[in-house]
Design brief:
This protein is mostly beta strands. The chain has a domain at about 40-95 and about 105-130 and about 160-180: Beta Barrel (Lipocalin), CATH 2.40.128. It contains two helices and 15 strands. The strands form five sheets. A six-stranded antiparallel β-barrel has the order 3-5-8-9-10-13. Strand 9 (about 105-115) and strand 10 (about 120-125) form a beta hairpin.
């Protein structure tokens, strides 16, 4: 009975202090909130390195589609972690235009919207834009020489692949709990002792 009460108190105390479970697994590292709870101010426009968890492309996605990402590196205030690597976030496709006939390239604009940290939502501001490879010149010149079939030349698709690294920034000042990272010992490779 006492162990159940202890577990219940630990769960309730984490919820009371606005702390959720640690972020997504990062191999070799365990993140835990610092006790006692210490809140630090993370300034607006602080850089946040993110990594896409899904592929986003001008041909497969539409305006308003959402996609997942995670924080690729710890974000610190001084030397204290406030956004642990692996924290999950969400982005949005702002504009997606498919590549088209006549060599028109695909277009893609995406924005990182927020990242979740210990039960708190930290708004982000950023965008990435790009176009696929443009083939309109090829289409125009081949149209002069070969006519109608040149309109069938397709432009390139703009793709942001899974695991792509991108930069985002915090949209506003945020008060966040401090986290500590505990590095787990890694197994050392065994050398072949056979002569």
């Amino acid at each position: 009975m006492l162990t159940r009460l202890t577990i219940l108190l630990m769960l309730v105390s984490q919820a009371a202090f606005g702390q959720a479970s640690p972020p997504v697994d990062v191999p070799g590292v365990t993140y835990t909130p610092k006790i006692p709870v210490t809140l630090l101010d993370l300034p607006a426009l602080t850089p946040v390195l993110i990594q896409f968890d899904t592929q986003v492309s001008s041909d497969a996605n539409r305006n308003g589609d959402r996609f997942r990402f995670h924080v690729a590196a710890d974000v610190c205030v001084g030397d204290v972690i406030v956004i642990p690597a692996g924290s999950v976030g969400e982005g949005e496709v702002i504009h997606a235009q498919k590549s088209g006939a006549g060599g028109r390239a695909g277009e893609l604009i995406v924005a990182a919207r927020y990242v979740n940290v210990g039960g708190r939502t930290v708004r982000l501001r950023s965008f990435a834009a790009g176009t696929g490879q443009q083939h309109t010149d090829l289409s125009v010149w081949s149209g002069i020489f070969i006519g109608f079939p040149s309109l069938m030349i397709q432009g390139g698709v703009m793709t942001m692949p899974r695991d792509m690294i991108a930069n985002a920034r915090t949209a506003a000042r945020a008060r966040l709990p401090a986290w500590q990272a505990t590095r787990q010992p890694q197994d050392e490779p065994m050398e072949n002792s056979n002569p």
